[in-house]
Each structure stands twice: as C-alpha cells, then as structure tokens.
Amino acid sequence: MAESAPKRLKTGGVLIGTHSGHFHADEALAVHMLRQLPAYADAGLVRTRDPAVLATCHTVVDVGGEYDAARHRYDHHQRGFAVTFPGRPTKLSSAGLVFLHFGRAIIAQRLAAQQQQQQQQQQQQQQQTETAATGPADEDGAEVTLLHRKIYESFVEALDAHDNGVAVYDPAAVAAAGLTKRFSDGGFGLGAVVGRLNPNWNDPPAADADEAQRREDERFLAASRRIGEEFDREVDYYASAWLPARAVVAAAFARRAEHDADGRVLVLDGQSVPWKDHLYTLEQQAAEEGSSSAGAGRSPVLYVLYQEKPEPGAKWRIQCVPESKDSFVSRKPLPEAWRGFRDAELDAIAGVEGCVFVHAAGFIGGNATFEGAKAMVAKALAA
Predict the structure, then answer these.
(1) For the stretch 85-110, what's the b/e string if a residue is b when 16 or more beta carbons lie within 10 angstroms of its beta carbon?
(2) Do residues 214 and 277 both lie within one domain?
(3) 211, part of any domain
(4) Selection from 15-29, 108-122, 183-197 with the highest mean pLDDT
(5) Three-state DSSP string of 231-280
(6) pLDDT for 130 beyond 60
(7) Which percentage of the chain shows pLDDT scores above 90?
(8) How far apart are CA 44 and CA 65, in angstroms?
(9) pTM of the complete model
(10) Whole-number pLDDT of residue 127
C-alpha cells in the first residue's frame, strides 16, 4: 500500500526512515543525532513498516532487519545481531549504532562551534572586528576520542540497554542477595520520559487513518526533540566543562607530592572543577604505567582540597574521595570525633584554628584558610 502524505513529516534533502507505531527513546534519539549533521539538517522523515517505502530512504533506523553502514541501514532487531560499542558489553540499539558511526562527527562539530564562540568572545573583549575561521575538530583526535567514549558510557549506553531489555544489575544476583527496591524511581529514566509521549490507550480516536498517523508523528517529533535536548546538554557539558577540567585535575595530580609525600592529597588551585572521573582515570593510568612522574606507586588520593569560590579570601573545602564514582563510602572519612561540629567548638576538638564544619557523615569539611584545611587533613591522615 502506498504511503500517505501525512507520514512524510519533513521534506527536502535526504530521507530518513523509521518505524511507525509505538516509538521508543532509541530511534527518537537516532533521528535527532542524524539531524545535527549538515548532510541531514534538512532531511525528510517517513515513519512506516512498508519495505517498499523504506527502500526509497537514504537512511533507515530501528526497522528493516538490516545493519549495513555502507547502505545507511541501522537496525538491531534481526537474529544474530550482537554489535557493541568498542570495549563495552551492551548490545547496541539504533541510538548506539548511529552514535557509533556519527558520534565523532557530532562531537567534532560541537567542539568547533564552542571554539568559534570563545574566539568571538575574546575578540569582543579586545574590540576586534575580524573573526578567525574555525574548522571542524579532528574526528580522530584525542579529545574527540575521549568524549566519544565518555558520552556513550554516560548517556547512550543506558538507552541501548533499556531498548534491549538489559537490567542495570544482574537479576539473578539481585534475587540471590535478597535485595528489593526501597522506593520507586518515579519513571525518571530516559526511556520512560520518551515513553510517556506515546498516545494513551484511551485517547479519543482520530477521524481517519491519515489523521491518526499525523497525531502519532507529531508525538514522535516531540519525543525526538525532548531526548535530543538532553543529549545536546550532555554533549555540551562534557565538551565545555568536563573536558577542560581534565587538564586542571591532571596538573593537580602531578603536583600532589608537594602537599603529601605519599600523594594522598590533591589540591585544586583557584577553582573547584568536576574531578572524580578524572582522578580515578589518572590513578588507573598511573597504576598501569608502573612508573611515571605523576607518581605511580603512591597511595590513592584520600582528600581533595578546593576553594568554595574563585575569589581572594574564600573558604576552603576538604572532600573525601569516595571508594568509587557513585559510592557514598569514603576511602578515609574525616575523624568521627569531628563530625557534626563546627566553628569554635570544632577548633577545640580538632586542635586547628579556623574550622568551619565537618559533615555528620564525615565526607566533607571546611576551614577558613588553605593552611587550616591542610592542618585538618594532616591530622585526619594521622588519625
């Protein structure tokens, strides 16, 4: 049967095909990611399961029973499909397939746009009128490679797992341990956010098939925009905040012996940055290298010191390093005797002037000065 006009959501450029009916987060994101690239910026979209119509599409995602990047076919439902992102165990969905093949180009494009914006801001501050041309970032460069893997692990992999029915934890292991959920997560996962945009079973029916398809397609476009906004924020965060923080943490990691001979104290000079991911990676790299100027063989970092605000006279924080990124258990909490106290009372207990507080759980504390924070850490290390 011929495809009706309402199913063609946008005309011009190449044509993207995906399936009609109930939609999921993976194809909604796949379509959004494709449309971030110049080749697909004006792409049309058709939602159908008709093989004859799909055959007219330049690119097909999440339908058709075929994975062939050379022909721009990105389905994962066919028997025997077992493709994963390099180094990761989760079978890809259409989102993962598109990110695998196009993610580097998307990231390189975002990096180039940010660099151009920074140049324009600098030129405005210098009252310059000419804007230097900025080319795309190197898709095979170290920064793009790092971000490609990080964004897959932090965002896209969850969609792949959700669409392929992979639980966060091994169900058999959970059952054997007798674990039960303490509360509902409220359906805040990305898959649930998109799923709620599908029509309800008892929505009033449309007057005819074309109108029903038009309504469904509008909902799909809203879903693609919604998850696309979250994806764009994720890319922007890792490109503009997380990646620059890596250089700050690496510099502090290389200098940590200046503050503790065993390398157990990391000091972030000037301003706090997102440090956990980078610290664990740097420690792992140092351990794998066996010897380096970064201090391989030293003890793990136990405490991170940083100013509350990047301004003169700002107070200093002492944060305990968790056992792992998502753990609430510190490698070495601040002394139990200090916990829950603050100000002069804490000064007397700790024997250090300028104390501000120590959290009741012992994972963070503070002092009015850097010297005071270092004195607190020295006592905590000796405790």
Answers:
(1) beeeebbbbbbbbbbbebbbbbbbbb
(2) no
(3) yes
(4) 15-29
(5) HHHHHHHHHHHHHHHHHHHHHHHHCHHHCCCCCCEEEECCCCCCCHHHHH
(6) no
(7) 78
(8) 21
(9) 0.83
(10) 63
Pair of tokens at residue 227: 């998850």
Residues 213, 347 within the same domain: no
- Using alpha carbons, list the distances in angstroms from residue 351 to 50, 230, 289, 338, 372: 76, 48, 40, 10, 10
CA 337, CA 327: separation in Å to the nearest integer?
A: 23
Beta bridge pairs of residue 355: 367
* Domain containing residue 91: 15-125+136-198+205-235
Nearest to 109 by CA among 85, 142, 144, 133: 144
CA–CA separation, 235 vs 151, rounded Å?
7
What pLDDT, in 10s, does the model give residues 218-228?
Answer: 999 999 999 99
**Residue 8 belongs to a domain:** no
| Distance, C-alpha 113 to centroid of its chain | 19
Residue 383, SS3?
Answer: coil
Helices and strands of the chain, counted as H and E runs: 12, 11
Grade residue 296 by pLDDT with cuts at 50, 70 and 90.
Answer: very low
135-146 as b/e, with b when 16 or more CB fall inside 10 Å? eebebeeeebeb
Q: Is the dihedral of CA 144, 147, 151, 152 positive or negative?
A: positive
Q: What is the pLDDT of residue 3?
A: 37
**Please, which residues bridge with residue 278 across strands?**
none
Tokens found for residue 295: 């201090």
The confidence score (pLDDT) of residue 1 equals 30
Letter string b/e over residues 312-330, b meaning 16 or more CB atoms within 10 A of that residue's CB: eeebbbbbbbeeeeeeeeb
